[in-house]
């Protein structure tokens, strides 16, 4: 009989994927070739070129000089914020969203303001709501697509609606964190912000290799932005940290060249667990539509909260109750969505089944 840990975690943001063989082979070849090369601060020219080519294939006009390679997506975001924000500048974040954004914006000297999207409309962005939320001090509109934690994937048509508004503010940067871009299950190919027309050169993409490309622990991410911003972000990286190790960049280059095949394989490997999660949720009280992207579900457990507590406390209390019942999940309160909980299904199937059984038992216990 299989034994399980006392607490099974569905809370990690990283999947249980093996690194892609081609990436490992490229890194191993470099390691065996002798002393490692050092990298220019903005990244190895071959990797910057491979990334630019990847976005060109999606219809973008990106050149290698618009790419900064960083030690993960988080440093890419921080370098961008340091390069773009002046004191008093505001970052408008569409929520729910990844809990890490707030600290990065604040530590970079910006002011974070949130624009909540409604689960009842499947987190659609509403033109009127956007129009009235953006003003002269708003320097950055920030979102993630596919969204962490909701898993929502925004379509080309939705982007077009949003960009009609942001084009009225040429000093505004539209920043799309696309680190989950390869993990999507919808009928439409994924739309990168970079593939949409950008007459005012406002579009910025942040991404990395730790989610959609299986390079967990290799610490590679990147920023794609207008050249002047890249120069400033690279200067920040030069004076405060270092270029990414050539070994990781070699692996990243191989992964970039085979990005679609790698992500497709990851998605196929997730299908069984995705279906287990989908069916498990279908047996609960009505939920928002099952997300088309990421390896998360973000169910609404508001009806299981203690009614005598304020919402955020009740949400934290339920997360603690689930943990006491043997399953760790992410409290949506950390993503501005108390009462919702992020559950990853990128874990081994037996662990997923057991964790879901424990969650249901904890939710329905008297
Ligand atoms: C939306 C989003 N952006 C950025 C990051 C940070 O990624 P990295 O591990 O490459 O720094 C994460 C990690 O969880 C994330 O979910």
TrEMBL record:
SUPFAM superfamilies assigned: PLP-dependent transferases (SSF53383)
UniProt keyword annotations, A-Z: Aminotransferase, Pyridoxal phosphate, Transferase
Aminotransferase class I/classII large domain mapped to chain residues: 6-359
CDD domains (UniProt xref): AAT_like
InterPro entries found in the cross-reference section: Aminotransferase_I/II_large, AspAT/PAT-like, PyrdxlP-dep_Trfase, PyrdxlP-dep_Trfase_major
Gene3D superfamilies hit by this protein: Type I PLP-dependent aspartate aminotransferase-like (Major domain) (3.40.640.10)
Reported cofactor(s): pyridoxal 5'-phosphate
Keyword Cytoplasm attributed: no
Gene Ontology molecular functions: pyridoxal phosphate binding; transaminase activity
Highest taxon in the source lineage: Bacteria
One GO term of the biological process aspect: amino acid metabolic process
A UniProt-annotated Pfam family: Aminotran_1_2
Family according to the record: Belongs to the class-I pyridoxal-phosphate-dependent aminotransferase family.
UniProt name for this protein: Aspartate aminotransferase
Species assigned in the record: Hymenobacter chitinivorans DSM 11115
């Amino acid at each position: 009989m299989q034994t399980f840990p006392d607490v099974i975690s569905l809370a990690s943001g990283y999947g249980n994927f093996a690194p892609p063989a081609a990436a490992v082979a490229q890194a191993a070849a470099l390691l065996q070739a002798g002393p490692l090369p050092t990298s220019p601060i903005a990244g190895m020219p071959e990797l910057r070129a491979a990334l630019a080519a990847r976005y060109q294939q999606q219809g973008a006009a990106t050149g290698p000089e618009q790419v900064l390679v960083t030690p993960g997506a988080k440093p890419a975001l921080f370098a961008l914020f340091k390069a773009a924000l002046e004191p008093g500048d505001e970052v408008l974040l569409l929520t729910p969203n990844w809990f890490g954004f707030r600290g990065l914006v604040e530590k970079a000297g910006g002011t974070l303001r949130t624009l909540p999207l409604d689960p009842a409309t499947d987190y659609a962005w509403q033109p009127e709501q956007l129009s009235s939320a953006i003003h002269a001090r708003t320097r950055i509109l920030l979102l993630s697509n596919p969204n962490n934690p909701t898993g929502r994937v925004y379509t080309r048509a939705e982007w077009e609606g949003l960009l009609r508004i942001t084009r009225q503010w040429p000093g505004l940067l539209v920043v799309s964190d696309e680190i989950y871009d390869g993990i999507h299950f919808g009928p439409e190919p994924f739309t990168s912000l970079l593939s949409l027309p950008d007459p005012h050169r406002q579009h910025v993409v942040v991404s990395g290799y730790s989610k959609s490309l299986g390079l967990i622990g290799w610490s590679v991410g990147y920023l794609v932005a207008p050249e002047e911003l890249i120069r400033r972000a690279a200067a920040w990286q030069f004076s405060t940290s270092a270029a990414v190790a050539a070994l990781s960049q070699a692996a990243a280059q191989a992964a970039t060249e085979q990005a679609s095949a790698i992500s497709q394989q990851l998605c196929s490997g997730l299908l069984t667990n995705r279906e287990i999660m989908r069916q498990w949720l279908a047996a609960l009280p009505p939920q928002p539509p099952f997300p088309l992207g990421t390896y998360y579900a973000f169910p609404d457990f508001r009806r299981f909260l203690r009614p005598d507590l304020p919402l955020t406390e009740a949400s934290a209390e339920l997360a603690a109750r689930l943990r006491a019942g043997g399953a760790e999940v992410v409290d949506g309160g950390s993503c501005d969505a108390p009462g919702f909980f992020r559950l990853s299904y990128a874990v081994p199937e037996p662990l997923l089944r057991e964790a879901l059984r424990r969650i249901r038992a904890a939710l329905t216990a008297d």
